[in-house]
Amino acid sequence: MADVAQFLIIARQYEQAVEYADQMMKSVPEGMNECRAVYFKLHALFHGKMVRLSQGQLQEGVDLCMSANESLLANAMRTDMATLEIEQGRPAEAVRLLEEHYAEVQGYEYPALMQYFNVLLAKGYYRLGDLAKSRRYALATIASAVENEISEPLGQAYDLLYRIESQQGHATEALAYHEKYMAADKGYLTDVSAGALAYQAVKQQVQTKKNEVDTLNRQNQILQLQRELDHKAMETSRLYIALLLTVLVSAGFWLLRTKRSQLRFKRLATQDSLTHICSRQHFVDEAEQVLRQAARTTRSVSLVLMDLDHFKLVNDTHGHVIGDLVLKRAVAACQQHLRRNELFGRLGGEEFAILFPESTAAQAQERSERIRQAIAATPLWGETRHVVISASFGVACTDRSGYELRQLMIDADNALYRAKRDGRNRVIYGDDMDAAELEANALREAAPRERLADLPH
Ligand SMILES: Nc1nc2c(ncn2[C@@H]2O[C@H](COP(=O)(O)OP(=O)(O)OP(=O)(O)O)[C@@H](O)[C@H]2O)c(=O)[nH]1
Fold first, then answer.
1. Which EC number applies (predicted)?
2. What is the 8-class DSSP label of residue 302?
3. Interatomic CA distance for residues 452 and 290, integer angstroms
């Protein structure tokens, strides 16, 4: 930072130099003296003529540097103090101050500072009218200059010598010094301009770099924004996908529910709720279909009606719960003797129907007999005693009755009626009836017959 402040002073950019000096003051390490920063600041303020500095302020700076053992910087500040004294018309004060520290400065072997001490002493003595001393220090200024190096004190020294020689009437010497003065002054001004130009070039480079950094920052911001936008777009698509999935899942769920309801309704319509075998209507529909197909191939189909015996008594004796259980057990016993393609339905109450799709009357009789035995052998205990179960069977076959379900039902019902009348717990096939049976049957058929009620005529 000190190097930058010094460069700025050389380039005569005093305002920036003051800013750097201020920053230097803020960053002085713990326990260190601010001398260097104060020197740059006072020097920049003084030469930039930004404020009117007082001797007191400069003296404070000198004291600070002395306490930090920075006598070179203190003496550099003394040149500013001497300049101020001369400017304010106190050349004697300036001379006293410079003479007092002259030897000390000589000891540094620092030509630049020595030049300033010499030229200021030359100026001071010139103002005091001591031309001899003024000449001596002006010549010392020239002597202390580094060879081929042009400086501000060098030009001022030649100017003084020109004036002294002029006053003393030495026109030739005066002219020679004046020429040297002009050359030195021109060279110095060129140096100053070069410094200023260098500064401007550096400033320009810094500005270019700053612009590049700004551009990169802006590009970064744009990229950042782009990334945020992409992120937002991704989030939005995710939201859409989630929404779509929700809609699809809801639709799927709704379809599933609808399907399940449909299946439930279908089951309710086609299944008997207690025994889970075919409902009456479903049995009738399926049986008619089987009969239509069988009619085309003229194969034998048998229909068996089965009715539990004295079921009212079972209910009355053991209660309806046991009655229901008896119904389920009887159904289970039947199912054990039925094949997959054989239709089994509950027509109502304790009445059931079985359709054997490929069976003669004899085969149906034989199968019914096995079922009858199975039902009779079904063990069941009521709350207090054994429940006796049996069933009566009436068999009809297409060989005799034809392929109309209604007729098959009538014939099977008649056979069942006979089975009941003949003592129950038996299987009867056919309509071989005597005169009394025919009369009883006619009377029975005259009464409304529930199991035939919804069959097509
Ligand atoms: N527990 C129960 N009883 C039923 C059900 N459906 C009908 N019943 C009863 O079954 C009985 C049928 O009695 P009936 O028609 O007189 O016949 P039955 O007593 O079996 O006499 P037969 O058929 O002549 O041997 C009635 O008491 C009905 O209340 C049912 O789902 N559960």
1. 2.7.7.65
2. E
3. 18
C-alpha 134 to ligand 1 mean position (Å): 153
What residues make up the domain containing 400?
Answer: 280-452
Reported as a pLDDT band with limits 50, 70 and 90, residue 448 is very low
CB of 311 within 6 A of ligand 1: the answer is yes
Q: How many domains is the chain partitioned into structurally? A: 2
> Cβ(350) to ligand 1 under 6 A?
yes
Residue-wise pLDDT tens digits, 62-97: 999 999 889 999 999 999 999 999 999 999 999 999
* C-alpha of 416 from chain center: 78
The two most distant CA atoms of the chain are separated, in Å, by: 187
Same domain for 181 and 71 = yes
Q: Which residue's CA is the closest to the ligand 1 atom numbered 15?
A: 312
Q: What's the CATH code of the domain at 292? A: 3.30.70.270
In a domain, 73, yes or no: yes
Give the per-residue SS3 of 79-132: HHHHHHHHHCCCHHHHHHHHHHHHHHHHCCCCHHHHHHHHHHHHHHHHHHCCHH
**Which tokens in the block code for residue 30?**
């713990």
Q: Residue 281: pLDDT above 90? A: yes
Q: Is the pLDDT of residue 434 over 80?
A: no
310 lines ligand 1 (CB under 6 A): yes
